Amino acid sequence: MASLPPWRGIRIGSTPRGEAPLAIRRAWIGLTLPLLETAPSAPETMVVEIGFRNPAGLLSALKQRLGFKPPTAIWQAYTVQAASALRLLENHSPEAARWWRQNTPWLYQPAQVLAFDADCCELVFGERVPANEP
C-alpha cells in the first residue's frame, strides 16, 4: 500500500504584504495554511494584482471593458486556497475574517487563491495537518 505524501503548508511568521489594513494582515501571523495540491514546494514568481477589486462590481466590469488593467507587482510567493485559509483565519481572528468577508466576498468561491509573499512565511512539511493555535 502506497503511503500518502507528506502534508505541505506555510507557517506565517511575519506580516504579509498586501492591500488589507495592517492589523488585518497581522492577524495571519501564527497560522499554518495548506498549500494548494498543485503548488510547488518552493515559492513561485508571480504577478500579483495590487488593490482590491470586486469582479462582480459595475465599476470593475466597466474598467475591464475599457481595457484598464489593475496595477500589479512581482512577488516570490506561495499560493493557498482562499476559502480554506479564510476559514482558518476565522478561528484565529474573527474580526480579521469579518473584514475579508465584507471587503472581498468573491474570495470565498472555491477556485480563488491567496498569495503570501515568501518573506513572511516558511515552508512546513508534516505527516498530518497541524493544529492552528489562536
UniProtKB/TrEMBL annotation:
What domain of life? Bacteria
Indicate what this protein is called per its UniProt record: ASCH domain-containing protein
